[in-house]
Amino acid sequence: MNNKNYLKSLYPFIIFSLFFFIFSVTYGYFTAKFSPDNAKIVLEQVKKMYEPIIHANRISQFFFVFLNNSFTIFISIILGVLVGIFPILVLFSNGILIGILVFLWIQEYPLESFLTGILPHGVIEIPVFIMGTAIGIRIGKIVLYKILRRININLLKGLYAKISLKEEISLGLIFFLKFLVPLLAIAAVIEIFITPAIF
């Protein structure tokens, strides 16, 4: 399967990931709105987690952001074999966090300033996360189908019957390394070296 056909095969999962991510952001926003004290606690925990890297030099920050994002997507693909649960959790947790950040930010600053800080790298990073988790969810669906077949439940009527799980994981990782990793590097450069200058 070439890259174009593989990307086409991901379309339904990309659409699912996109809408689930939007739902997660919305959920995070309204969770923060109805419980702002808890939202502030979450924000403080995130700050503590990232505090060491905040005071590091730009090169260290670049490698931290790039490697952290790459590892998260890599694990989302590999652990897609757990019937797609892990990539869904990655979408949900990141979406909730963004929703919380949006709510807390606009309590003190204009929304435009938040968008200025997140959009330059976010227009690359968010689609990459959505595609990466879509790969993991597709793998999860194939695993689920094979489990159902083993117990003689053919709900999907032969769909994915001839797909090798090993080949599917291999295709996902090749796509990840060939396309998503370079995009994550570009997003990290923008986030660390360009966004602070315009923000």
Order of helices and strands: HHHHHH
Stretches where pLDDT falls below 50 for ≥5 residues? none
Task: Report strand %.
Answer: under 5%
* Average pLDDT, all residues: 90
Distance between the termini: 42 Å
Structural class designation: mainly alpha
Helical fraction equals: over 70%
The backbone outline, from C-alpha atoms, is globular
Rg is 19 Å
Tally the beta strands: 0
Quaternary form: single chain
The number of domains: 1
Main β sheet profile: none
Helix count equals 6
SSE arrangement:
Elements (H helix, E strand, L loop, with lengths): L2 H32 L1 H19 L3 H21 L6 H22 L4 H40 L14 H34 L1
Helix pairs in contact: 1-2, 1-4, 1-5, 2-4, 3-4, 3-5, 3-6, 4-5, 5-6
Textual characterization of the structure:
The protein is an all-alpha fold and 199 residues long. The chain has one domain. It has 6 helices and no strands. α3 packs antiparallel against α6. It is globular, with a radius of gyration of 19 Å. The mean pLDDT is 90.
Concise overview:
With 199 residues, the chain is mainly alpha-helical.
Features:
6 helices; 199 residues
